[in-house]
């Protein structure tokens, strides 16, 4: 029986892998330009790390985590996202004591046991940024500008940035009380919500705003949103953020229902959506999480971040027919014509590779025609032909594949020639 890959997971092969590398390298360059440094955290963590931060009532924790017991019966989960791991590492390595502001970026696989569909997978990949150590709205603006810069650099057009504010802990408390009152006074309205939302309205009302049930969605228009309960300080922060974004000429829309599916968000939330993606239209999401570091036992620290889904970003680029300029490496192909010249050919191959140039050779003696076909497939710039005559004269025939010319050179000249390609 053939063993196949798991549902919702993908192999990424050449030539598509070149697009991935292009995206990742562009993102890396931009992250570094904004002063963010790479962090790599483990793919597995204690389950409690995610439960405590993402929230017991969220879809991710309730249905989507890949959780198992290790040999010592500890509950371990594959990371469904990266922010909790970065926050843990920040505290574990006492980074708050070393610098004022810590700015991280990451690239890697995440795991959620969701029903697979276009743009939604069980293993998917994200790159993201996390900045920890400031409450300034300029930090929110920097994070949104960084997100915007990534899609602008890729020349994406059909996207939109949505922003909202969820307010602080007190505001959330006010919101919770307001919904509890609705639950008390309008039992008939509440009974129309799905069973999950009837439970959520009491213990985690924000979650009703991102319920996928169509009836709940419709009913939400009659409910207050967290923005209706925000205090003056949070409102000022939000207004300042809008002012900065306008100053930076970053267009945005306000969406009062944008609560994001994770409990740790406070204040600003945002999302970048794309029109070419159908139902799974969010490419990037993020926001502030000012209480997360302290909830993990660290100091009180303002923080803000985002995560891009790489698969969706690629789908968006493909929907706009964006061509990636992939720098093709210089390639040389060595064609050995017979057994005696193979040894020398292999040595030349080795020397060329040592100069940093990509070089190929067949592992068996084949006809020149077959080797030329292979060289064409590899898009080789030069083909070096080595046979009995070349061995005797210690000169090599070099075919320039673009110019369709042929010269004869010695070994020293050969290395110079291929380097000039
Ligand atoms: P989140 O971590 O839920 O805020 O998601 C951030 C981004 O990750 C989303 O905007 C998507 O682009 C991507 N994403 C989340 N879940 C999946 C998934 N199951 N498959 C593919 N991409 C995903």
Description:
The protein is α+β, with helices and mostly antiparallel strands and 421 residues long. 37% of the residues are buried. Helix 1 runs antiparallel to helix 6 and helix 6 (137-153) runs parallel beside helix 11 (232-247). The chain has 17 helices and 16 strands. The model has no long low-confidence stretch (mean pLDDT 93). It has helices at residues 16-33, 47-54, 59-64, 83-92, 95-98, 137-153, 169-185, 187-191, 195-203, 214-219, 232-247, 292-295, 310-319, 339-354, 368-377, 388-393, 411-420, and strands spanning 37-38, 44-46, 67-69, 75-78, 102-111, 123-132, 159-165, 253-254, 266-274, 282-288, 303-309, 331-336, 358-361, 382-386, 396-400, 405-409. It has two domains: 16-168 and 231-319, BirA Bifunctional Protein, domain 2 (2-Layer Sandwich), CATH 3.30.930.10; 331-419, Rossmann fold (3-Layer(aba) Sandwich), CATH 3.40.50.800. The protein has an eight-stranded mixed sheet, with helices on both faces. The protein has a five-stranded mixed sheet with strand order 13-12-14-15-16, with helices on both faces. The protein starts with 15 loop residues before the first helix and ends with a helix. The chain is elongated. Bound molecules: adenosine monophosphate. Residues 81, 112, 114, 119-121, 124, 126, 261, 282-285, 307, 309, 311-312 line the site of adenosine monophosphate (AMP).
